[in-house]
Structures are given as structure tokens and as C-alpha cells.
Specification:
Chain lengths: 165, 754
């Protein structure tokens, strides 16, 4: 696997110049080459969703995408969710409603929900549940995750987070 | 306002929400190399040759080890429940002579980058002479490694416990009930797979393993012993941990290998497993078959119970030794009187992944067994299942109740409990009579709805002791150091709440350091719902000692008598003059360290208890089971943070539902694991989860610790299998139909067409 490609990844608005093998996953590039370890790998076969990031604002399993495929596209990870010290409404809602325990799956859920609510701020609880069923959590039993996302959805409708991406 | 009993939000959450968490795979060191394990592709066989030349010649490969390269490393020893005769069944860190399950580590490859390590691992060829695997733990014992040790059979031990007059129990019984019940093979499956980074510092001679979990001090001592180092030359450091559930943090072959490699190769060594490896290499659990025989009287009272069970321990006996079988044998009687009891627990080895503990070990299994028996008694005698339980429950005036047997080497003494009271409250909460009427209406329209109830007794607070040190820092924060570990359950917050309750300092000013073997001399880690009970009690003791010391040091500073001083909101106050002084100021002005220690000892475990209620609807055409409603009633003695306890209970219930309906490690006839990805090992998503109601009670505080607490980590899972099985029977109107878990659609299909 000697042939390597020079690429530029744009992550949370910042450019990273990388040299990667074509087979290198976006998840590994984010974690190991960009040093953004907030994106977690739970299964590496696209089932658990812990590695979910937004690519051009759409939730994507970063373990199932190659880094070279993300060139020229806007990648957003959990590190870019808060604005400085001000947490995103989803992050606040997860904190206040005990929507996490070990916290390993949390970045994936946050990015999945962020992408979904940006695309459609008026999702019903049933629709939210349906979307969240694509990610796995082993600690919380999901109850508080769904509650957190629904409460954040209300908050975001009332007071949308700034859209400077 | 007391800090105990409040649902404060967690101290540990902010870094986890912003991506600043440091999990095992997030650790890195300059010059690190990556380990990849080559695992046995077959279930049972004799190793004839291992060819590693091609792998070694791949550019970027640093070393390739087989068992011959580390022949001096002993097998991994037991941490718990050491039983005579188990020693020959321990696992070496790389397979010697034989492989005993698909996934058995055979070769370790070390390379500059993880992709290269995987490439190299694929170039290793293992020549293994296949033998017929044993996959049935109830079959007659066979040879463990026939060629190497012909006399060694696959039954390392049988655990026997008994009390009471069995002959009298069966003489003149109104009915004798015999059953065979089985709980499938499933396990914790934390979302973070295992991983570790080992770094050897040649200057200090200290070997550090990052990514420790659960029992860092114990693992430090074991690793040191195995590598021939002194304990102080080995340091284990825990960062964030992505879920434990009993399985993570036990000393596994890979942990020892990264440490040995860092020590011997002189470079930092990192290992992160993939999910496929995790599902076939990390401890499995459950997998028990019980054959029981009960003598009951006309009221459904169990006069005597005889049980023979088989625990499928998999390929080797790992760190837990006989723990699961011992707990199953000791805690099977649960909340019931059962005046005569005899149990024989066979520990059997098969050619599957080795087994250990998983949340509520031995109790998930035996609660299923015991509560299925209660339902069978009701069906046989035509009694209400709730009434059968009521006549068998241990009455409140018999507490503390001496079971007359031991579990994990300590006497089983139920410390406190109001079992009948909780049953009444639970039935009132679910509106039992109305629910029955509602079911009758729905059934009349053809719906298959049913209710199942299951009672359980948990155990928690395993000793022998726990140490906490505490000190006031110059910035007026309080640092608590504990040898407990965090697996994501919120111990920083809970410990801070207990400290805050004594000192009046807000929890945000309390820092809890855990899982660092270089910061405290002893530690017992986090398992068996012990942290709040053991460490929490030690924190309370240390906080009180700190308070006393603060007042003593403040007295001359405030020119007051000790008796006139109180501690309020983190400041010592003189009742006479009204003068106050903060904790950090006391330390600064007195010139002495303001610190304290708490050592809590416990001779006995304590026994929280609860009831699960499941309401299900069965789709007979699709063999689907829809859980409509789920309730967990649980008495934890005293709740430090109710929100966190409810979180533990709901999360555990989800795992229990997984074990009852979905999760199972299935093997082919050749011993090939058929569940090695999340596409075939099915865990509940939020679609499968019903709303879980929690009836949290504090009716029977434990008299065995200063907080009155009982553990809360496991009770949410314990009775799920039992409650759902009963609900499915009820929904289908076929008592006794469900005798094994999980009730997967295919299994239900077979049962319905029988």
C-alpha cells in the first residue's frame, strides 16, 4: 500500500494537509492524523454509529468512508459543536438530563442529532426515536438520550444556535 | 441542604460532551508500535507449526511473537474465587500446544502502524490439527488437552452447597415439580472495545499501562508478578472508560502482551481491538443449564429445592475462577424461605470463548430459574403467581436472615428487607386489578397481551475494605483519591456528593482521582456494585475526619474552643464570635496539611432487592415480542443521586431485554462463532426499548455501612429474563412455555408450532 495521496481535509472550518493511503478511513484520519479523538470507533462496520460525523451537514459513519472521499467537503466533528465555552443545546440537554453514562457513544449521538435537527427542526418525537435507533448505546437504555434530544429540539426551535460553520 | 439524595448533574460530563474524553484508543506515545493478535480460526486443535517468516519480512514489522518467544510468562492467574483444581485450566497469553476456541490468541505481531500490523497478521500461517470440539456443557466431560495431559478432563470443579432436611421436605409434599431451564450466552459488550498503551521508561524503570479499567491495583500486581517486576515498577492509569458491565478490565492476555512487549522491545506498544475480536475474545457470560426439582405444599410453599446446574465456562478458566457458579449456587434461593436446599454447580469447559462475569452474574440466571419455578408452581396448583410468591417471601421480622451458606467466601446474611411491602407497592403502582381487566378486554379482540413479574435479591458491597485519602488544596478545592475505578457510572459525582454532605463544599470544588495506582497504595476497583457502598463509606469517614481536623486546627486561629466551632458551607464558624475561616486558609495559616484518610471495612455483602414487571404483546404471526411497559421496583437502602440510580436501572434493563429477546452468541457445529459483528449479535436500539418506569425505594437501609446504601448497578438487569418469560407465557396463555433465553423469533416460532 505504498501509493499515498496528499489531501486537504476541512474539519470544523480548519484545513488539515494529510498524506494518506487510499484505504485509510475518515475516522482514522480524523483521530490519528488530525488529532481529533472525539470521534469514536465502536464497531468499524457501520452499525454502532459512535463515529458519526457530519459531512456537508449530513450524518455519516466515518468508519465507512475513506479519508480521500472527504476531500473538498466540510467535515464537522463533536469538537466543533460547542461555540467556545458555550455548549450546543444538545450538549446542554444531554448534561442536564443524564443523557450519557460512559460517554463513549455520546459524540456519535450528538452529531447524528445535530445533523437531523439542522435538516428538519420540526421532527416529532417518533421521528427522533426512529433516527436515533441507528446508533447504539449500551449504558443509558436510550430513555434519557431521546428525552435530551427532544428537549434540545424545542430549545433549538425557540432559539436556533448560530449557523456559522 | 443535604447533598445526598439530590439529582445533581454529573461532574464528569463536560469533557465527554465536547470530545475531550480520553479513552483507551486516545492514548498515544512517541514512537509507539501497534500490536495485532493472530487468533485461532478453529475451535479445538493441536498446534503443529506456526510460520511467521512472511510476516516478519514485511517492511514496518518490528517483531512477531509466538508462545515460544515468551515461554517464561506464566498463565493468567485468578483474581477471585480460587477453587482447588482450577490451576491447570488457566489461559496462557499465547496459545501453547493447543488452541481451545476460535479467537484464542496464537501470535502477536508488532508493527510501526496499525494497518501494517494487520497486513502482517494475515501473512502468519498456523498449522493446526483439528480435533472434535465440545460445545455442550451438559455432555460428559472430555479431555482438556488430550495429548498434553490425558488425565485432565473438562470439568475443573463442582460447587456444592446445601442446608436443611431434604428428605423431610420431599416426604408428603403436595407436588413435586421438575424443570430444565437454560439461559443463553451473552455478555456486556461495552461500546468501547478493549485497548491499552504500555510505555516503559528506561530512566525510572517504570512500566506504565494506560487504558486500565475496573481493577487497576489488582492488575498492576498481576502484571508485575508475571513479568518478574516489583509492583512499584508497574503503574496502571485509567482514563475515561467506555462501559464496563463486568467484562472490561479483567486481566486479559492482550493486556499482559502489550506490557511485556513494551518492556522487552523498548518501545511504547499500543493495542486496540476491533469489534470482531471483542466479540470472540473478551469474556462471555451466562450460558447455564439448570435441572431442578422442588417439593411444594398445597399453598405453593417450597419445602425443598434441589438444583443441578452446568456453567459453560468456555475454553479456559479466566480471572474469575469459579465466581459465577459460586454466586449462582449461593443466591438461587433469592427472597424465598426455602427451608431445604441442595445445589450442585458443575463448571464445565467447552470450545467457546472463555466466560467471566456480566452485570448481575449468577443472579440473572438464577432469578430466571427460580421465578420460572414460582410460575410453574402457580400453574400446577392453580394459584395466582403473586400469591405463590407471597407465601414464600421471607417476612420482614425474620431480618436479618441467615441463609446458612456462603457466597464468595462470606456468609450470606440478608441484612435488611421489606419484601412483602415492596410487592404490595409494586402491584399498587401497576394497578394490578385494572390491568387484568384491561388485558381481558384486549384479549377478547384477539390481542396476545400478558404480564410477568419476577422478584429478586441482589448483592453488593463486596469487601474486604476500601481506602480513601482526602486533602484540601491551596486553591480551596478538595481532592479525593480512591483506588476505586470508574467505568462511566458517575462515581466522581457520587463521591463528591458524599463529601459535600459532610463538609458543605459544593461538589464543583471537589475533585475525585480514581484508577491511578501511583496515587494510592491500595485499591479494589469497581465491580459488583461495590463503589458507592465501600468507597462511598470510606469517603464519608475521611470527610468526617477532615472536618474534625479542620475544627481542631481552626480553634487556635479563631481563638475559640473546639466545642464552639462548627463547619458550615466549607468554613469553620465560631458560634461565639461569628468569625469564620475557610478550609484552605486553615491549612495555610496553621502551616499543616489539612488532610484525612478513611478506611472502611465490611465483613459481609449487603442485599438490595427488587421486582421487575413486564407487560408484553406477542405477535403470533411474526413471532415478535413487543415490550409495552416495563417497571423496576428497587430498594437501594438510600439513594445518593436518584437520577444516576435511575440511569443505572434503565440502562441495565435495556441490557436485560437484550439478553431476554435478542442477544446470543451462537456457534456452528464446528465451534465457529456465528455472532462476531453487530450485524449478528443484536443489541437493543431505542426501537426495542419500552419506557422503563422506576419505583425507587429507601425502605430498608443497610445497617452495615454508615450511609445505609446498597448497590444499584445491577438490579435493573437481574430479573428481566424472568419477567419477560412470564409475560410471554401469560400473553400466549401457555404457562411454562418459555424455558430458555433468549426468546428469539426463531425459537418462539418453534415453540408455537410444537
Amino acid at each position: 500500500m505504498a501509493n499515498k495521496h496528499d489531501i486537504t481535509l476541512t474539519v470544523n472550518g480548519k484545513d488539515y494537509s494529510l498524506t494518506v493511503e487510499p484505504r485509510r478511513t475518515l475516522a482514522d484520519a480524523l483521530r490519528d492524523d488530525c488529532g481529533l479523538t472525539g470521534t469514536h470507533l465502536g464497531c468499524e462496520h457501520g452499525v454502532c454509529g459512535a463515529c458519526t460525523v457530519l459531512v456537508d451537514d449530513k450524518p455519516v459513519r466515518s468508519c465507512l468512508m475513506f479519508a480521500v472521499q472527504a476531500e473538498g467537503r466540510a467535515v464537522r466533528t463533536v469538537e466543533g459543536l460547542a461555540k467556545g465555552d458555550v455548549l450546543h443545546p444538545l450538549q446542554k440537554a444531554f448534561w442536564e438530563n443524564h443523557g450519557l453514562q460512559c460517554g463513549f457513544c455520546t459524540p456519535g449521538f450528538l452529531m447524528l442529532a445535530a445533523g437531523a435537527l439542522e435538516a428538519d427542526p420540526d421532527l416529532s418525537e417518533e421521528e427522533i426515536r426512529d433516527i436515533l435507533s441507528s446508533n447504539l448505546c449500551r449504558c443509558t437504555g436510550y430513555q434519557n438520550i431521546i428525552k435530551s434530544v427532544c428537549l434540545a429540539a424545542n430549545e433549538m426551535r425557540a432559539c436556533p444556535p448560530s449557523a456559522d460553520r | 441542604m443535604s447533598a445526598i439524595g439530590r439529582s445533581l448533574k454529573r461532574l464528569e460530563d463536560r469533557p465527554l460532551l465536547t470530545g475531550e474524553g480520553r479513552f483507551a484508543a486516545d492514548n498515544r506515545a512517541d514512537g509507539q508500535v501497534h500490536m495485532r493478535i493472530v487468533r485461532s480460526p478453529i475451535a479445538f486443535g493441536r498446534i503443529l507449526a506456526i510460520e511467521t517468516e512472511d510476516a516478519k519480512s514485511l517492511p514496518g514489522v518490528i517483531a512477531v511473537w509466538t508462545a515460544a518467544d515468551i515461554a517464561d510468562l506464566p498463565p493468567i492467574d485468578f483474581r477471585m474465587t480460587r477453587i482447588a483444581g482450577l490451576e491447570p485450566y488457566r489461559q496462557h497469553v499465547l496459545a501453547r500446544d493447543y488452541v481451545r476456541y476460535v479467537g484464542d490468541p496464537v501470535v502477536a505481531v508488532f508493527a510501526e502502524d496499525p494497518y501494517t500490523a494487520e497486513d502482517a497478521a494475515e501473512l502468519v500461517f498456523c498449522d493446526i490439527e483439528e480435533e472434535t470440539p465440545c460445545l455442550d456443557a451438559t455432555a460428559d466431560p472430555v479431555g482438556f488437552m488430550p495429548e498434553r495431559d490425558p488425565a485432565l478432563l473438562s470439568e475443573p470443579a463442582v460447587i456444592t452447597k446445601s442446608y436443611g432436611d431434604m428428605e423431610a421436605a420431599f416426604a408428603g409434599a403436595a407436588a413435586v415439580i421438575e424443570m430444565e431451564l437454560k439461559v443463553g450466552r451473552h455478555t456486556g459488550v461495552p461500546l468501547e472495545a478493549r485497548g491499552a498503551l504500555a510505555v516503559h521508561d528506561p530512566e525510572t524503570g517504570v512500566l506504565t499501562m494506560y487504558g486500565a479499567a475496573k481493577v487497576p491495583h489488582y492488575n498492576r500486581d498481576s502484571i508485575a508478578r508475571m513479568l518478574g517486576l516489583k509492583p512499584e515498577q508497574v503503574r496502571l492509569s485509567e482514563g475515561h472508560v467506555g462501559g464496563g458491565f463486568g467484562i472490561r478490565g479483567e486481566l486479559y492476555p492482550e493486556d499482559v502482551l502489550v506490557c511485556a512487549a513494551a518492556h522487552r522491545l523498548g518501545v511504547p506498544v499500543k493495542w486496540v481491538e476491533d469489534r470482531r475480536e471483542h466479540l470472540m475474545a473478551a469474556n462471555h457470560s451466562r450460558d447455564q443449564v439448570h435441572r431442578l426439582k422442588a417439593a411444594v405444599d398445597a399453598n405453593g410453599f417450597v419445602r425443598g429445592l434441589v438444583d443441578t446446574f452446568y456453567t459453560d465456562q468456555g475454553g479456559y478458566v479466566r480471572t474469575h475462577g469459579g465466581t459465577v457458579s459460586d454466586l449462582a449456587a449461593a443466591l438461587l434461593p433469592g427472597p424465598y424461605l426455602i427451608p431445604a436446599y441442595h445445589v450442585e454447580g458443575h463448571i464445565r469447559l467447552t470450545n467457546k470463548t472463555p466466560s467471566g462475569t456480566y452485570r448481575a452474574p449468577g443472579r440473572y440466571e438464577t432469578t430466571f430459574v427460580r421465578e420460572r419455578l414460582m410460575d410453574a408452581i402457580a400453574a400446577r396448583l392453580g394459584l395466582d403467581p403473586m400469591e405463590v410468591r407471597r407465601v414464600n417471601l421471607i417476612p420482614e421480622d425474620r431480618m436479618p436472615f441467615d441463609r446458612g451458606i456462603e457466597a464468595l467466601g462470606t456468609h450470606v446474611l440478608y441484612d435488611s428487607g421489606k419484601y412483602h411491602d415492596l410487592l404490595d407497592r409494586t402491584l399498587a403502582r401497576i394497578g394490578y386489578p385494572d390491568l387484568k381487566a384491561d388485558f381481558a378486554r384486549r384479549r377478547a379482540t384477539g390481542e396476545a397481551v400478558g404480564l410477568g413479574i419476577a422478584f429478586f435479591v441482589e448483592k453488593s458491597g463486596l469487601g474486604p475494605h476500601d481506602l480513601v485519602t482526602m486533602s484540601v488544596q491551596s486553591d480551596d478545592t478538595i481532592e479525593i483519591i480512591t483506588g476505586a475505578a470508574s467505568v462511566g457510572q458517575g462515581i466522581e459525582t457520587v463521591m463528591a456528593q458524599i463529601c459535600s454532605d459532610v463538609l458543605g463544599v459544593p461538589i464543583e470544588r471537589i475533585r475525585v482521582i480514581h484508577g491511578q495506582t501511583d496515587r494510592i497504595s491500595i485499591g479494589f476497583g469497581a465491580f459488583a456494585s461495590r463503589v458507592t457502598v465501600m468507597t462511598g463509606s470510606a469517603v464519608k469517614m475521611a470527610s468526617e475526619a477532615l472536618k474534625e481536623k479542620a475544627i481542631a486546627l481552626a480553634a487556635p486561629l479563631l481563638q475559640a474552643d473546639i466545642g464552639a466551632l462548627t463547619l458550615e458551607m466549607g468554613r469553620v464558624v465560631s458560634r461565639d464570635s461569628g468569625a469564620t475561616i475557610g478550609l484552605a486558609e486553615i491549612a495555610a495559616q496553621s502551616g499543616e496539611d489539612l488532610d484525612a484518610e478513611g478506611l472502611f471495612r465490611a465483613d459481609h455483602m449487603n442485599y438490595p432487592y427488587g421486582i421487575h414487571v413486564a407487560q408484553v404483546r406477542v405477535d403470533e404471526a411474526l413471532c415478535g415480542i413487543h415490550v409495552e411497559r416495563y417497571l423496576v421496583a428497587y430498594d437501594v437502602g438510600r439513594a445518593i443521586n436518584p437520577m444516576l440510580i435511575e440511569g443505572q436501572i434503565v440502562g441495565a434493563a435495556a441490557q436485560g431485554i437484550g439478553g431476554a429477546l435478542l442477544e446470543e452468541f451462537v456457534y456452528s457445529e464446528e465451534g465457529q462463532p456465528l455472532a462476531t459483528s453487530f450485524a449478528d449479535y443484536l443489541m437493543p436500539t431505542c426501537h426495542e426499548m419500552p419506557p422503563v418506569e422506576v419505583l425507587l425505594r429507601e425502605d430498608a437501609p443497610s445497617p452495615q455501612n454508615p450511609l445505609g446504601v446498597k448497590g444499584a448497578g445491577e438490579g435493573g438487569i437481574t430479573a428481566v429474563g424472568a419477567a419477560i418469560a412470564a409475560a410471554v407465557d401469560d400473553a400466549l396463555g401457555r404457562p411454562g412455555l418459555i424455558t430458555s433465553l433468549p426468546i428469539a423469533p426463531s425459537r418462539l416460532h418453534t415453540l408455537l408450532r410444537r
